[in-house]
Every structure is written in structure tokens, then in C-alpha cells.
Amino acid sequence: MTELLPALPDETFRRVLCVVAHPDDMEYGTSAAVARWTSRGIDVGYLLLTHGEAGMPNPPEETAALRLAEQRAACETVGVEHLTVLQHPDGVLVYGLDLRHDICREIRRFKPDAVVGTSYEIETPMGFNQSDHRVAGLATIDAINDAGNRWIFPEQIDDDGLDTWSARWFLLPGMAGELDATHGVDVTGRPVQLGVASLEAHRAYLAALPEHPAPADFIPKILAANGALLGTEHAVLFRALDRHTPPDFLDDLG
Length: 254
Prior knowledge:
Strands 3-2-1-4-7-9-8 form a seven-stranded mixed sheet, sandwiched between helices. It has eight helices and nine strands. α1 (30-39) packs across α6 and α6 runs antiparallel to α8. The chain has 254 residues and is of the alpha/beta class.
């Protein structure tokens, strides 16, 4: 019998920052956990690194405005009031100090207890991971460390009045069978409905994707498969790193 995953100890969370590359990246299941969090009074912020302007056949400036409007609607659906969208180029997102700087700044500004990132792996069960997703995932991990170091991007402290910040949790979302999940969030009931509705808010974007399935046809199925590992009807799974707790292997060293 498979041992069930524990629930994520999110009762300690006050603020969660979600860092993704594009509009709609949060809406493929993870937004159901966001709906659960905001319903409990947790303040959730989204940081989008691009406007997703390369994601549709429309002219980029038209696409950027359209996708921003759809992302705002998706945020409203799940109770997210803090949306920050950066100007990095879609499709050719570059890992480097500029990107780390911008993510670090938002971490120091928002002061999250947990940061939700994206996969930095090259391959996923659905094929090769999109380049922007990999870059965003790796830059987010480094920016979490940067934010706690007074001597990295010190102008944010000296000139902008920010302070260092050490987020306790790094959360990497995924589907059953996709990652070595350590915890889950029960999203049974209304959070699933809101998660579906948040993806449906990207109506024009989804219409531009040939043969994209309807959100109601696949989001609940993904979350149900996840729920089987948590012992609930529906769940969002995370690989959760507690950065304030020493790794277990130290206990074996005596």
C-alpha cells in the first residue's frame, strides 16, 4: 500500500509569492491551491516575468494587452489582489543577473513565507520543458537566496528602502508521476471549480491553441489523480523545501 503524502503545513503561511514566466502558467492546476489559500486569508501575489506576447498569432503588443487583461480576470477569480508583470521578452527569457535582480526585488518587497516556482528540468512527462519555464524556475531559486543576502543587489536596500528577506518555503508544483512530491494541498470542492474558472478566463489565448481541451475536461482529472496520493478527492501536489530546517541527512552524521 502506497504511503499517503502529508498535507502542506500552510496554516503558518501569511503571504505566498508565485513566480512564473507567462500569463496562464499558474492556471494549469496550481491556482486551485491559490483559491484555497486566499479563502483562508493568505495573501497571494503573482509575479509574471513576461506579458506572454509571443504566445498568439496577433501582433505582440496586442497580445500583451489581451493576455494581461485575461490574467487579471484569472487572478480575480481565485482572490489574488497583487499582480506584477515584468517586461522581460517572451519566448527568449534569459537567465542572468537582470532576471535574478527583478525577482529578488519582488521577494524583498512582498516578504512571502513561501515562494512557488516552476520546473527547471529539461524534460517533463509531456515532453521537453519550454525554455522560459526552465529559466524562470532556476532564476527563482537563485533569487530566493539572493533576497536574504544584504550584499547582493545592495542598491535595493540602500536606495529603495527594502530589506533582506528569507522565505522559509520553496514550493515546486506538479502532477502525480511528474515530480517527487513531498506534500499536498486539499482542494476538494470550490477550489477545484475556481481553478477551472481561472484557466477559462484565458479565453482568447486558449481559442488560439488548436485542439486545446476544455479546462473542465482535464483540470479536475489531474487534481483527482493528485488527490489519490493525499487521500482526498482533489489535491495540488508540491515538492516542498523547508529552507529553515536542516536537511535530514545531518541527523545520520551523529
